[in-house]
Input
Amino acid sequence: MLWRKAWLECKYRFLLCFVMSAALGLSAVVQVDQTVAQKVLGNFAALASLVGPLGALILAGSGINTQTNWGMLQGFHPSMYFLLSMPVAREKLLRVRALMGLGLSFIWIAGTAALIGLLETLAGRASDWTGMISSLPNLLVGTTVFYMLTVWLTAFLDEFWAGMVSLTVMGMFAGYGLAGGPSWFNTAKFMTAKSLLGFDGMAWLQALAYLTLSAIFYWLAKRTVERREY
Output
């Protein structure tokens, strides 16, 4: 029941993410005045630096706090009726909801990369499938950090404020990337690189640091909901 509940909460958010994918795919087709390499890099860079984290924010929304307290508007969240009729630990609810959203984020990112390449192929252009596939591991790792950050924020903030804080953090990192900051904190540069599959030692350390940070965010969310059990 909890997995079905998590899917019902995520399905429209999942579709919204693919609306963004359609916009990216359309831009891949209409950019006729650039080389294939420039088109692929431009669209994939957009996915990594902005659209990927934004999709993670969308799928991580409607967190545990909004489901057990007040939502963005007056009145209780619809899930309150479900939780009252079938009591469940908040930590379990958090875990199922977080895993469902993260899994859909991965599916959406991989699907978007495939969509961009497919549309370019249908438009009669050669697509850099190898380049996009080799960038996916970095992109998934970087997106996980933003996703888990939002999961943690939704454990104690309502959806509006959790989204605002997440957007602020994303904007800070996007600006840092545009300014060409050092690569260790430059998430956009890391997410568009192909270094993980190339066995770059420093990139693996950076990926390990990002995954550790993601685990810390989830642990903080778990501790937050455990403290509020009654």
